[in-house]
Design a protein that fits this description.
The chain has about 170 residues and is mainly α. Helix content is about 55%, strand content about 5%. The chain contains eight helices and two strands, in the order αααββααααα. About 5% of the residues have low confidence.
């Protein structure tokens, strides 16, 4: 069993593992992981929750139903897919903001249809071991293949450093 000094060193390695991430800016992929983001995209059928347009790779946003500014969290039960334009139009407004409502009406949808779509998406569980994650694996590899490869390489190097540290510290 490692002593306290070894556990402190391993803790520092773990913190550095997440600090050394290869993704330079905040993104849903960095925060949630590529498989979870792919499951959110799959759950929304690759369509924006608000305007209904199909989202393209690199032109999507993960929107918080209850905005983070108002106490919303990053749990999958609070996240839906949106196009970048609708995400910006919604901002941190509770509910649907006037600019977003204008985009919704321009797309020929109603506010009620949008909230029905939010409810439909939130009824489908997303997370490790769920059907959504299983079905979205090909999508994850297609959209986020580089991030998955980098995460695996980073995790392997972290695991190797921890193993090396455990060998180095006497028990």
């Amino acid at each position: 069993m490692p002593n306290a000094r070894a556990w402190r060193r391993i803790g520092r390695l773990a913190r550095n593992f997440w600090r050394d991430t290869t993704l330079s800016r905040w993104s849903a992929v960095a925060r949630l992981g590529p498989y979870t983001v792919a499951a959110l995209i799959w759950r929304a059928k690759k369509r924006c929750t608000w305007c209904g347009q199909e989202v393209a790779k690199g032109r999507y946003a993960i929107d918080h139903v209850v905005p983070r500014a108002l106490g919303g969290t990053d749990v999958c039960r609070n996240l839906v897919l949106a196009c970048s334009e609708c995400n910006v139009a919604r901002s941190a407004a509770p509910g649907i903001s006037p600019p977003l409502l204008a985009r919704i009406k321009a797309a020929g949808r109603t506010e009620a249809e949008c909230w029905d779509e939010v409810r439909r998406q939130l009824e489908i569980p997303v997370g490790r071991g769920t059907w959504a994650n299983t079905c979205s694996r090909p999508l994850a590899k297609q959209w986020f293949g580089d991030a998955i490869t980098q995460d695996l390489a980073h995790a392997r190097s972290y695991k190797a450093r921890v193993a090396q540290e455990l060998k180095r510290v006497p028990f």
